[in-house]
Amino acid sequence: MEFKYYLSGIGWAxxxxxxxxxxxxxxxxxxxxxxxxxLRALMDxxxxxxxxxxxxxxxxxxxxxxxxxxxWTFELKEHNKLMIKADYYEDELCKDNTKTLIKTEYxxxxxxxxxxxxxxxxxxxxxxxxxxxxxxxxxxxxxxFLKLKHYIIHKQKYPIQEVQGEFDLQARSNLKDDLxxxxxxxxxx
Length: 189
Hints:
This protein is of the alpha+beta class and 189 residues long.
């Protein structure tokens, strides 16, 4: 399993995925916030990252490349197996004619670990503000990334406290812990 993701110009990102002998190389544009959508699609499958009533068995996201695109579909199956499908279309105006570039199953945690290790290196290489500048004024999906990173390291829900605020209960994380997690290296299990 290989997952590479890098910013390849202002508003452009290139992704290389090779899994079970199937390979995809795609350059996406800023028209979709592809990294944010990709991580959200993976997070929405995870009971440790979203409320139980919001967990989904199947998710989808789309990357546009002007005019081509990729539609990613993820489905969580028994024994934490992730069905991964990537359909390519040549023109966004004609999405009925697609070619499947990847269709396989892989352990969810192993796939997520590969993705997060690459994105961990990406954010450390560019920085939070540098990423925004390079990805045409869209922020790195920090909240989603940190929730998934905490899960992959600790196999538990991100620590959030409910604290009485001035008017009502407020959800809070510890900023020091947030920053330490951001800087922490992800090690192989």
